[in-house]
């Protein structure tokens, strides 16, 4: 046989063998090694950008760290505040003192005991500017922290703060062992969570092992969780189809639909995050409330949702948290009304129309540019010209942070407590007020009342007024909230998706 | 003669160093010109809520409080001691990261080039053997497909179809190096190599076709045929042998590009190569990671060019003689 033909056959055979090898091994269960069958593989699109809980804001980082670290309070599946490392807490009658009773017998991953000194040290460190903790503002009402005995912590407050227990539930306020440093924890996380770090391969995977000393009554069902980094959501779905990944959270509605069509189990969960057209009421023509109201009346929010996000979501008002949810029908123009928009523009003396420099991020989230284009088209019919500046995400963040825009198409994070969501934006002293572009004495008072009131029904009434004020003044144009999509393969049980996107219920999940 | 060679070597080394310095300056300046920094890349819009004291603390932590000139020369100086910088996100030095990612990319590049040559050279020769015939048209169609089908489309389709229809997706498993599991590694590399190889086969096929057509019209081919050299030997030894220089040039160029990392294909197939390392570095604005990795890629490109030049001397005696 000629040599050329022989080598061609050789190469072809090698390829066939390799491919055959692939198909024979690809059906094996995701977990391998000693923990086979009990390792849950979670597909994520990125590696955590930090292992330090006080600085974590990225989705994967927050969700990995939530399984490694404990917080004083926690949220249940309905986002009610429930005990965490603090098994109870009590506010003094004047609201200026919060006393927390800590859970006994809790240990860190390294075996050392957790007590009130760790809480005091952690809170003091978070409040210190040099730490650059991202949730420092959540503790703005805390004057001092004392630890009278190992199981008691007392927070002296500058004034009543009903939102504080909810704020304490974020992993950005996780409790660390006294003296722990960022450098140490970046390689050896040491928390009180249901899992501990077993291994990490940069940009590829992170494996957590069950923490058998965890304080919860029900220990985690799986012996390990592997967060496997697969950068592309479509590739994660492919990995689920071949049985290599068992659970993931998808953001792109298009990929979610593909996954569903491919037979992957899918659960839609409304998000607290909301899509919004932010207006900068301190700039130019937007300083006139009538111009802002004209914008509000000229937009059909359902159309934005349908065209930009395939209808996957719901039209919302300012507050998205279930316990305080705003009614989107209670706004000056619940449905699009171009005549009213023209009337408002006329009142503002701008019947000829207005032009707004609008920033849009490309790549930050899937629907941004489509939303902007639809808004532009709708508003053009009301003589409102959105001059779109589509920016790379870094440039967008720079402009947004500097409040250098008339309007911004944005996807903002919501929180379970409305004070956490909006206090920082719309109170005159809030650390995001410059970007929010609006404050008023009425809102300052309402937010202060909301913090000072502990009764849930009374708080709901206050935040309804906040919501009404924001809508009546068309401070921003709230559009819609999307879904997150939890995709699971057959055999995965017990996972509870949460509206805040948390993966804390991985501890109750079994891999089948 | 020795002086001439020494001069050529010195000139080559000097131009290499100059190229690398230019790349270093360019990448350093470009990174700083891009809006945002490591703080805003990590915190996003949350950075707007930082107090000046917090911002200052973070700038100190990331070394952003230093003047740009100091940052540049500190980085450059460190390079000479083998310190390529540190990735806070990965908690690893850039050298460690590169030592993991570069072999992955080299392996993928070699496999892709081998596949591209296996597709491109025979099809190019076949197409040229009868210009304008159906076999030539078939070659042109393959070449057009290779050039016009975007790699992300081919990659996603291949992955989706094989996963859904055959449950076959080695890239859904944790990545294995050749030392850990050679078979799984080969499985994980074969699909991305196929996608990349198909894309690269197109220019190789076109170059081969053009070069073969040109050589076939040379007098020595006619003479060899007249002397009774068997057709297969004529095609391989005389025609293809003499057409190799442009093929080697094109292959070297493509190989150099591949060493820069095939970002899209690496992303889709979860291959932890050097392209992904640069992409993540850019996304997180990890200056040291991007600067040093780009420099490594530039060095690899220069080395491949040198190697290509050396190959000319092997495949073409005329170059040796000159």
Automatic annotation (TrEMBL), chain A:
<dbReference type="GO" id="GO:0042597">
    <property type="term" value="C:periplasmic space"/>
</dbReference>
<dbReference type="GO" id="GO:1904680">
    <property type="term" value="F:peptide transmembrane transporter activity"/>
</dbReference>
<dbReference type="GO" id="GO:0015833">
    <property type="term" value="P:peptide transport"/>
</dbReference>
<dbReference type="InterPro" id="IPR000914">
    <property type="entry name" value="SBP_5_dom"/>
</dbReference>
<dbReference type="InterPro" id="IPR030678">
    <property type="entry name" value="Peptide/Ni-bd"/>
</dbReference>
<dbReference type="Pfam" id="PF00496">
    <property type="entry name" value="SBP_bac_5"/>
</dbReference>
<keyword id="KW-0732">Signal</keyword>
<feature type="coiled-coil region">
    <location>
        <begin position="365"/>
        <end position="392"/>
    </location>
</feature>
<keyword id="KW-0175">Coiled coil</keyword>
<feature type="signal peptide">
    <location>
        <begin position="1"/>
        <end position="30"/>
    </location>
</feature>
<protein>
    <submittedName>
        <fullName>Peptide/nickel transport system substrate-binding protein</fullName>
    </submittedName>
</protein>
<dbReference type="InterPro" id="IPR039424">
    <property type="entry name" value="SBP_5"/>
</dbReference>
<feature type="domain" description="Solute-binding protein family 5">
    <location>
        <begin position="80"/>
        <end position="431"/>
    </location>
</feature>
<dbReference type="GO" id="GO:0043190">
    <property type="term" value="C:ATP-binding cassette (ABC) transporter complex"/>
</dbReference>
Automatic annotation (TrEMBL), chain B:
<feature type="domain" description="ABC transmembrane type-1">
    <location>
        <begin position="102"/>
        <end position="308"/>
    </location>
</feature>
<dbReference type="GO" id="GO:0071916">
    <property type="term" value="F:dipeptide transmembrane transporter activity"/>
</dbReference>
<keyword id="KW-0812">Transmembrane</keyword>
<keyword id="KW-1133">Transmembrane helix</keyword>
<feature type="transmembrane region" description="Helical">
    <location>
        <begin position="12"/>
        <end position="34"/>
    </location>
</feature>
<comment type="similarity">
    <text>Belongs to the binding-protein-dependent transport system permease family.</text>
</comment>
<feature type="transmembrane region" description="Helical">
    <location>
        <begin position="108"/>
        <end position="129"/>
    </location>
</feature>
<keyword id="KW-0472">Membrane</keyword>
<feature type="transmembrane region" description="Helical">
    <location>
        <begin position="243"/>
        <end position="269"/>
    </location>
</feature>
<dbReference type="Pfam" id="PF19300">
    <property type="entry name" value="BPD_transp_1_N"/>
</dbReference>
<dbReference type="GO" id="GO:0005886">
    <property type="term" value="C:plasma membrane"/>
</dbReference>
<dbReference type="Pfam" id="PF00528">
    <property type="entry name" value="BPD_transp_1"/>
</dbReference>
<dbReference type="InterPro" id="IPR000515">
    <property type="entry name" value="MetI-like"/>
</dbReference>
<keyword id="KW-1003">Cell membrane</keyword>
<protein>
    <submittedName>
        <fullName>Peptide/nickel transport system permease protein</fullName>
    </submittedName>
</protein>
<keyword id="KW-0813">Transport</keyword>
<feature type="transmembrane region" description="Helical">
    <location>
        <begin position="186"/>
        <end position="205"/>
    </location>
</feature>
<dbReference type="InterPro" id="IPR045621">
    <property type="entry name" value="BPD_transp_1_N"/>
</dbReference>
<dbReference type="InterPro" id="IPR035906">
    <property type="entry name" value="MetI-like_sf"/>
</dbReference>
<feature type="transmembrane region" description="Helical">
    <location>
        <begin position="289"/>
        <end position="312"/>
    </location>
</feature>
<feature type="transmembrane region" description="Helical">
    <location>
        <begin position="141"/>
        <end position="166"/>
    </location>
</feature>
């Amino acid at each position: 046989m000629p040599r050329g033909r022989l080598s061609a056959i050789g190469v072809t055979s090698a390829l066939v063998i390799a491919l055959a090898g692939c198909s024979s091994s690809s059906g094996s269960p995701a977990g391998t090694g000693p923990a086979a069958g009990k390792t849950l593989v979670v597909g994520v699109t990125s590696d955590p950008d930090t292992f330090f809980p006080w600085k974590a804001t990225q989705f994967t980082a927050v969700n990995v760290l939530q399984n490694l670290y404990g917080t004083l309070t926690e949220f249940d599946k309905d986002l009610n505040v429930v005990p965490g490392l603090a098994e109870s807490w009590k506010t003094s009658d004047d609201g200026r003192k919060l006393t927390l009773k800590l859970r006994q017998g809790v240990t860190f991953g390294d075996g050392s005991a957790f007590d009130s000194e760790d809480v005091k040290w952690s809170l003091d460190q978070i409040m210190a500017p040099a730490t650059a903790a991202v949730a420092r503002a959540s503790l703005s009402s805390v004057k001092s922290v004392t630890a009278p005995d190992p199981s008691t912590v007392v927070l002296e407050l500058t004034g009543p703060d009903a939102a504080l227990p909810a704020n304490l539930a974020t992993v950005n306020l996780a409790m660390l062992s006294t003296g722990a440093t960022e450098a140490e924890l970046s390689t050896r996380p040491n928390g009180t969570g249901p899992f501990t770090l077993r291994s990490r391969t940069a940009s590829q995977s992170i494996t957590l092992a069950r923490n058998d000393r965890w304080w919860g009554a029900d220990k985690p069902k799986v012996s390990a969780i592997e967060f496997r980094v697969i950068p592309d959501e479509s590739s994660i779905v492919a990995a689920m189809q071949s049985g290599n990944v068992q659970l993931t959270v998808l953001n792109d509605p298009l990929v979610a639909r593909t996954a569903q069509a491919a037979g992957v189990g899918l659960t839609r969960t409304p998000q607290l995050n909301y899509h919004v057209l932010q207006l900068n009421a301190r700039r130019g023509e937007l300083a006139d409330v009538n111009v802002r109201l004209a914008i509000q009346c000229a937009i059909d929010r359902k159309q934005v949702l349908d065209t930009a996000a395939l209808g996957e979501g719901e039209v919302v008002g300012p507050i998205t948290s279930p316990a305080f949810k705003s009614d989107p029908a209670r706004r000056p123009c619940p449905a699009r009304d171009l005549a009213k928009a023209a009337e408002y523009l006329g009142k503002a003396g701008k019947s000829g129309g207005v032009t707004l420099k609008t920033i849009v991020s490309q790549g930050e989230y899937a629907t941004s540019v489509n939303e902007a284009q639809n808004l532009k088209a709708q508003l053009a019919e009301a003589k409102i010209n959105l001059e779109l500046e589509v920016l790379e995400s870094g440039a967008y963040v720079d402009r947004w942070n500097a409040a250098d825009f008339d309007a911004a198409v944005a996807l903002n994070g919501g929180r379970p407590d409305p004070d956490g969501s909006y206090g920082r934006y719309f109170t005159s002293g809030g650390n995001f007020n410059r970007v929010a572009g609006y404050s008023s004495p009425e809102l300052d008072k309402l937010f202060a009342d909301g913090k000072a009131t502990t009764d849930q029904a009374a708080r709901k009434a206050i935040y309804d007024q906040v919501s009404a004020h924001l809508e009546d003044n068309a401070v921003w144009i709230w559009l819609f909230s999307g879904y997150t999509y939890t995709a699971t393969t057959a055999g995965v049980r017990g996972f509870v998706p949460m509206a805040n996107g948390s993966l804390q219920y991985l501890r109750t999940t079994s891999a089948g | 003669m020795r002086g001439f060679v020494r001069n050529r070597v010195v000139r080559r080394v000097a131009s290499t160093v100059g190229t690398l310095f230019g790349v270093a300056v360019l990448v350093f300046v470009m990174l700083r010109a891009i809006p945002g920094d490591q703080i805003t890349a990590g915190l996003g819009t949350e950075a707007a809520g930082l107090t000046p004291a917090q911002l200052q603390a973070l700038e100190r932590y990331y070394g952003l409080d230093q003047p740009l000139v100091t940052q540049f020369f500190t980085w450059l100086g460190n390079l000479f001691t083998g310190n390529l910088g540190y990735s806070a996100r990965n908690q690893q030095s850039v050298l460690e990261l590169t030592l993991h990612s570069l072999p992955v990319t080299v392996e993928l590049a070699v496999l892709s080039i081998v596949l591209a040559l296996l597709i491109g050279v025979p099809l190019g020769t076949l197409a040229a053997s009868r210009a304008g015939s159906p076999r030539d048209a078939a070659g042109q169609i393959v070449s057009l497909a290779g050039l016009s089908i975007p790699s992300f489309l081919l990659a996603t389709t291949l992955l989706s179809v094989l996963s859904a229809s055959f449950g076959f997706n080695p890239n859904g498993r944790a990545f294995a190096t050749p030392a850990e599991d050679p078979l799984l590694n080969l499985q994980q590399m074969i699909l991305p190599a196929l996608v990349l190889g198909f894309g690269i086969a197109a220019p190789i096929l076109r170059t081969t076709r053009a070069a073969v057509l040109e050589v076939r019209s040379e007098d020595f081919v006619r003479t060899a045929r007249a002397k009774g050299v068997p057709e297969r030997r004529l095609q391989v030894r005389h025609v293809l042998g003499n057409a190799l220089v442009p093929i080697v040039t094109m292959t070297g160029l493509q190989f150099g590009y591949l060493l820069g990392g095939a970002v899209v294909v690496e992303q889709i197939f979860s291959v932890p190569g050097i392209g992904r390392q640069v992409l993540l570095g850019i996304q997180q604005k990890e200056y040291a990671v991007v600067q040093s990795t780009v420099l490594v890629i530039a060095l690899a490109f220069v080395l491949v060019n040198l190697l290509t030049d050396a190959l000319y001397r092997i495949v073409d005696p005329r170059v040796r003689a000159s």
